[in-house]
Design goal:
Blueprint (H helix, E strand, L loop, with lengths): L6 E5 L3 H17 L6 E5 L1 H10 L4 H10 L7 E2 L9 H4 L7 H8 L6 E2 L1 H11 L11 E8 L5 E5 L12 E3 L4 H7 L9 E3 L2 E5 L1 H4 L3 H6 L4 E5 L14 H33 L10 E5 L16 H20 L4 H5 L6
Parallel strand pairs: 1-2, 1-10, 2-5, 6-7, 10-11
Antiparallel strand pairs: 3-4, 5-6, 5-9, 8-9
Helix pairs in contact: 1-2, 1-3, 1-11, 3-11, 6-7
């Protein structure tokens, strides 16, 4: 079944910062009287998207994040006996010691996400998510065997926009675990016998699937607010953070600029393209760079501060958005 959407909201991934900032922007969207019909998210953004899709209002979503801390999402692994196999370290050729050392490490991920499964089940239910009638949600993940981005959704986009990467299904906790399975940190999510991981490195801001549903307007919520040009990192943690931020920002800008180009073509020569012009609004944090340590820092103090920041930044940009009046009134931007 294909459903239309007047307003789409796209939630980026990026750990705790993405979760909190995105929830704050959701408050600003609600403050403006907007009710999105299409919600697209990846990783922490997928949790925000699903929360709104199942009928949570923005205040309830914010309250959920204030209550969740690290212990509710992950814990240390205790199977230390499987962590290291010294026999692989001394296998021939001995000259290939770096490779042998890596092969001797038996762990494929560092943290146990059993707490996440219980927490998501508590908030969303242990069965199919009860997506609100009239809303479409898209959760993105990467199939680890094929390296393809897969879009799990409760309703397919229009047939002429293609369906190769979309899987129509009943969204559940397993899809959230797949989309939030950050490589090396968390175990892959398993769906239908396949292993899926976080799509954050290749599609951290899932704008493309949102545009496939041909909404009239889309609010794109970023998770990175680093000052550009970025300062040189001074530690390994800052280096990892900058690499992740640059990859995510590059993917976001590529998709966003492509959407702007399509808009220009649709406005200048509508007969030359079958695509419609879609009003776009990009909302990003101000002066909040992504950090490796902040990725997993789930706590009440950060939640309150970052959600307040998201509500403030989002509220200001939405208030100045030329499309606001017609979208709030249920019309179509021209």
């Amino acid at each position: 079944m294909t459903r239309g959407a007047k307003l789409a909201v796209v939630f980026s991934g990026g750990g705790a910062q993405a979760a909190y900032f995105g929830a704050g922007v959701a408050r600003a969207i609600e403050d403006a009287g907007l009710d999105p019909c299409l919600l697209s998210g990846v990783s922490a953004g997928a949790i925000n998207a699903c929360g709104l899709a199942v009928g949570m209002d923005a205040a309830t979503l914010a309250d959920m994040w204030r209550r969740i801390d690290c212990a509710d999402l992950f814990s240390l692994r205790f199977d230390a006996w499987s962590m290291f196999d010294p026999r692989r370290l001394v296998r021939r050729p001995l000259s290939n010691l770096p490779q042998n050392l890596l092969d001797a490490i038996g762990w494929r991920w560092l943290l146990d996400t059993s707490p996440s499964r219980r927490t998501f089940a508590d908030y969303f239910g242990d069965g199919p998510l009860p997506v609100t009638e009239g809303k479409t949600v898209v959760v993105s993940a990467v199939d680890q065997s094929s390296a393809e981005v897969v879009r799990f959704t409760n309703a397919l986009p229009p047939a002429h926009r293609g369906k190769a990467e979309y899987v129509e299904t009943t969204i559940g906790v397993e899809h959230l675990l797949a989309s939030t399975a950050a490589p090396l940190l968390f175990p892959p999510g398993k769906i239908g016998g396949n292993e899926y991981i976080d799509a954050g490195l290749v599609a951290n801001t899932p704008l493309k699937p949102a545009l496939a549903y041909e909404p009239d307007a889309a609010i794109v919520v970023g998770a990175s607010g680093i000052t550009r040009p970025a300062p040189s990192p001074t530690s390994l943690g800052e280096t990892i953070g900058l690499i992740a931020e640059n990859v995510a920002q590059s993917a976001l800008l590529a998709d966003y600029r492509h959407a702007e180009t399509v808009n220009e073509l649709a406005a200048a020569a509508p007969e030359a393209t079958g695509k419609k012009r879609i009003e776009l609004l990009l909302v990003e944090p101000d002066g909040l760079p992504f950090t490796a340590s902040g990725f997993l820092r789930f706590n009440t103090a950060d939640a309150r501060a970052l959600m307040a920041h998201g509500r403030e930044v989002g509220g200001k940009l939405i208030a100045e958005w030329p499309a606001l009046g017609v979208i709030a009134a249920g019309g179509r931007p021209r």
